[in-house]
Specification:
2 domains, binds zinc ion, DUF6221
Length: about 190
């Protein structure tokens, strides 16, 4: 292999590495946008609460499982909002809270308590916070051009521009692996 062939091959590798690195950032941005859209779609625009809890509708107290199941429970937002009545007839509500939560699930007939707890924990508030945290992690690990733009590296992981460390960095690969079942996921990103 001549020196020119060697350099050409090296340049080709670097271009591929840079393209991969940029692509995984785009892939993650798209997946996180989807997660955010889904979480926002779950928010009632009229009563935009984001924290969910299971409620016993008969007395408005937190629902308690019986024999490992919630029965007849209602999934509602923790946040409560003014209604037409509280807004227009405040004198009716002087000594009580007439505001209403958003009703996510009116009544769940019979729901395994473990599944119920999981649903409530993963309300929009949790998902949106995770999306935001992951976006910041992606930004910290987004590859930047080094060596006069000939190569890309993750400065947070402190990859030396001349090292053999492959791009994208391991942090981006771990984040992308969450979405490994997506058709755009590439197997070479496996951490
Ligand atoms: Zn990194």
């Amino acid at each position: 292999m001549t020196i020119v062939e060697f350099l050409r091959a090296r340049l080709h590798e670097d271009e591929e590495a840079a393209r991969d690195a940029v692509t995984i950032v785009e892939f993650l941005a798209e997946r996180l946008d989807e997660d955010e859209r889904a979480a926002r779609a779950a928010i009632d625009p009229e009563r935009p609460g984001t924290h969910w809890q299971w409620i016993e509708p008969s007395d408005d107290t937190p629902a308690e499982p019986e024999d490992g199941y919630l029965r007849g429970a209602s999934l509602r937002t923790v946040e409560r909002f003014p209604t037409y009545l509280t807004e227009n007839y405040p004198e009716l509500y002087q000594d009580r809270d007439g505001r209403l939560p958003a009703f996510v699930i009116d009544t769940a007939d019979e729901l395994r308590s473990g599944a119920a707890g999981h649903i409530a924990r993963n309300g929009p508030a949790r998902v949106l916070a995770e999306v935001e945290a992951k976006r910041r992690i992606v930004a910290q690990h987004a590859p930047v051009p080094v060596n006069f733009g000939d190569e890309y590296t993750c400065t947070t992981c402190a990859h030396s521009p001349t090292s053999k460390d492959p791009q994208p960095c391991g942090t981006l690969k771990l984040l992308a692996a969450v979405y490994a079942d997506h058709p755009d996921y590439r197997k070479e990103w496996a951490p």
